[in-house]
Automatic annotation (TrEMBL):
Residues 82-270 form the START domain. This is START domain-containing protein 1. The lineage of its organism: Eukaryota, Metazoa, Chordata, Craniata, Vertebrata. It comes from the Eukaryota. The keyword Mitochondrion applies. May interact with TSPO. Gene3D superfamilies: 3.30.530.20.
């Protein structure tokens, strides 16, 4: 029974698994381990209950959010794994490289690759565990609120972008499922848009949709205090913006994000240095 569940959640069959390499196989193995550790429904309930806030009762539909997050991650990893069609868009002196690919439907997706001066665990903490604090160091975000916990590794969030100078896209809000997966010295953060009847589009905002998207954080073999950071950005901003403007704005938003993240990490280093010298 369990192998069938693994295939259902990961959307693969054995021949596909044999043909996988790199990112997909690693992530699929991690997802399989998650399911193996939660074989019985009672164990699933206890696992979810441990990650829930506000004493929210465990509901079977929370499993659908977990599956939605895993499926988003699988699709995003498949896009990254396919090397065909990628073209370099931007190369920065700090090592940031952004490539793009045109997907079916003529939408562009963007892949940022760089190295960050932080461990895998620290970046996981900043980008997933403490996601509600992201507005404190990223001025492009007004707020992120966790609406639901579907276990320790899957959350439903509402995000509102801030009004910033030079923002070509304008204010947007997002309703998303976010799923995390740890495997050895790597972390995978996947996500996609989701709809909730209890949280319809908000007045005054255009509800954009992201995903399938993912971030991959991997320890550098030469230095565990540094991480290789790969980010697939796949977003439908909605509204009536020309495609040319959107395709300029999205990679720039990725560069802005990594710039703010580096400043956050530099501030940490400065604080650590002051503490150490006291």
């Amino acid at each position: 029974m369990l192998p069938a569940v693994v295939k259902l959640c990961c959307g693969i069959s054995y021949p596909h698994l044999r043909s996988m390499t790199g990112l997909q196989r690693t992530a699929v193995a991690a997802i399989g381990q998650e399911i193996t550790s939660l074989q019985r429904w009672g164990q699933i309930q206890r696992h979810m209950h441990a990650g829930l806030k506000y004493n929210e009762p465990v509901k079977e539909d929370l499993l659908l959010y977990v599956q939605h997050g895993r499926e988003a991650m699988r699709k995003a990893l498949s896009t990254l794994e396919n090397q065909d069609g990628w073209k370099v868009e931007i190369t920065e002196s700090n090592g940031d490289v952004i490539c793009s690919k045109v997907m079916p439907g003529a939408r562009k997706v963007f892949r940022l690759e760089t190295v960050l001066e932080a461990s895998v665990d620290e970046l996981y903490d900043l980008l997933f565990v403490r996601v509600e604090e992201m507005h404190q160091w990223n001025p492009s975000i007004q707020h992120i609120k966790i609406l639901k916990h579907a276990g320790a590794d899957t959350i439903i969030t509402h995000e509102v972008s801030a009004e910033t100078a030079g923002n070509l896209i304008g204010r947007r809000d997002f309703l998303s499922v976010r799923h995390s997966c740890k495997q050895n010295s790597s972390v995978y953060l996947g996500g996609a848009a989701i709809q909730l009847e209890s949280f319809p589009p908000q007045t005054g905002f255009v509800r954009a949709e992201d995903g399938p998207t993912c971030i991959i954080i991997q320890t550098l073999d030469t230095d565990a205090r540094r991480s290789r950071f790969t980010w697939l950005l796949n977003m439908d901003v909605k509204g009536w913006l020309p495609k040319s403007i959107v395709n300029q704005a999205l990679p720039r938003a990725q560069l802005d994000f990594t710039r703010h993240l580096r400043r956050r990490l530099a501030a940490r280093d400065a604080l650590t240095g002051l503490t150490g010298s006291a």
